[in-house]
Amino acid sequence: MNTRTRHSEKRNIRLLLLRVGGVLLIVLLSGIFWMKSSSHPLFSGPMLSELVIPGPLVHVQPQAVRAAVLPALQGKGFFSINVEQIQAAVLAVPWVATAAVRRSWPHTLYIDITEAVPVARWNGNGLLDAQGRVFVHSMDSAWTKLPMLSGPEGSEQDVLAEFNDLTTNLATRGLAIQQLTVDARGDSTVALNDGINVRLGRADAGTRLERFTTVALPALSEKLADVAYVDMRYTNGFAVGWKNPVNNGGTHPKEVGPNG
Question: How far apart, in whole angstroms, are the C-alpha atoms of residue 258 and residue 251?
Fold first, then answer.
């Protein structure tokens, strides 16, 4: 075979390789274009087809979790889902306190949920958790034994903190707070489990409640069943409101006028 023939064969091989490479490039680009334009993004991985919500769950409805998560899974694969977005969607479901989202190859999404625990009612039918968050509204009679906290909207955490402080003062005396009300002026009133309302005012509520238990209660011990309220907004004393003022001589302040 002469030199001219060998050069011709090499040229033909190069042309063939170029044509094959061109065809492969066209096929590759077409595939990329198709994958980008389809509902399944490029390199997103296999579709997540199984959602697992380990239990047991008492109040969180699994179908509510699935409904919240579904929009974030549409057209997304194993690698392309936004875990933070899914977590935020689950946290918005009633009764969810925490949510941990994890993937398991190739098709499974796990969502571990911790349910909220109510510690008090808020302004009627709201249920308040230990962080002062109203996480659901419920008229279920099962929650009527929880203490009732009332106050301006947005003051949940402050009112809960005050309730916790006042409860600590009463814990050793066999008394419990059934209701704490803080009005728009910031005046606090507590209703105790013995049926007495104690007016504490805006300042030094803890000190005034302490004075109620150490001074007012012993002084009223023989007539507690007739007491409607005790006003502790006096510097050195208190006033009593009777359930039957006629029989008990009306309200008896121990000092002139409340001190805020």
Answer: 13
DSSP assigned state of 77: B
Indicate if 125 and 245 belong to the same structural domain.
Answer: yes
- pLDDT recorded at residue 18: 60
Burial class of residue 116, CB neighbours in 10 A (0-12, 13-18, 19+): buried
pLDDT at position 185 over 90:
yes
User: Dihedral of CA 87/93/99/100: which sign?
Assistant: negative
- C-alpha 122/C-alpha 31 separation (Å) is 58
Largest CA distance in the chain: 136
Q: How is residue 80 annotated by DSSP? A: T
CA–CA distance, 55 with 152 (Å, rounded to integer): 36
Look up residue 147 and give its DSSP letter.
Answer: P
Torsion of CA 231, 232, 233, 238, to 10 degrees: 80
- The total of structural domains in the chain comes to 3
Is residue 58 included in any domain, yes or no? Answer: yes
Cα–Cα dist 125/257, whole Å: 36
Global model pTM greater than 0.85: no
Name the residue range of residue 102's domain.
50-115
Q: Which residue has the tokens 């006033």?
A: 239
pLDDT of residue 32: 47
Task: Give dist(CA 51, CA 41) in Å, integer.
Answer: 20
Could you tell me if residue 124 is inside a domain? yes
By the 10 Å C-beta count (0-12 exposed, 13-18 middle, 19+ buried), 200 is classed as buried
Q: Are 173 and 192 in contact (CB under 8 A)?
A: no
169 and 247 both lie in a single domain:
yes
